[in-house]
Design brief:
It is a single chain. With 95 residues, the chain is of the alpha+beta class. 27% of the residues lie in helices and 37% in strands. The protein contains 2 helices and 5 strands; from the N terminus they run βαββαββ. It has a 3-stranded mixed beta sheet with strand order 2-5-4, covered by helices on one side. Strand 4 and strand 5 form a beta hairpin. Helix 1 packs antiparallel against helix 2.
């Protein structure tokens, strides 16, 4: 994920789910290793039954020439989540 460089990210009033969809799409387009393109499976976890973190908002986030890994970390931080790598998926979990 560090080899995939996204030229421009400009989120404004963007939900966590929309941001992840954008990163997933761009990672597939920009991955130099097209044998297994993209960032792989992504899971957004819940902290409780009443809260769905997919709707958490990013008020404004702009980045240029950023690695997919750094972008994912920043999106997680902006939405109060943390990135956890498991053997099956990349998980975003509430802090």
């Amino acid at each position: 994920m560090r080899e995939i460089i996204i030229p421009l990210i400009a989120f404004e009033d963007t939900s966590l789910e929309e941001a992840i969809d954008f990163l997933r799409l761009r990672s597939r387009e920009l991955d130099p290793d097209q044998s297994m393109p993209g960032m792989g499976p992504m899971v957004i976890g819940k902290s409780s039954e009443s809260e769905n973190p997919r709707g958490r908002q990013i008020k404004e986030l702009r980045m240029k020439d950023v690695s997919l890994w750094d972008a994912l970390q920043r999106v997680a931080r902006e939405t109060g989540m943390r990135v956890v790598i498991t053997d099956r998926a990349i998980e975003l979990q509430p802090k």
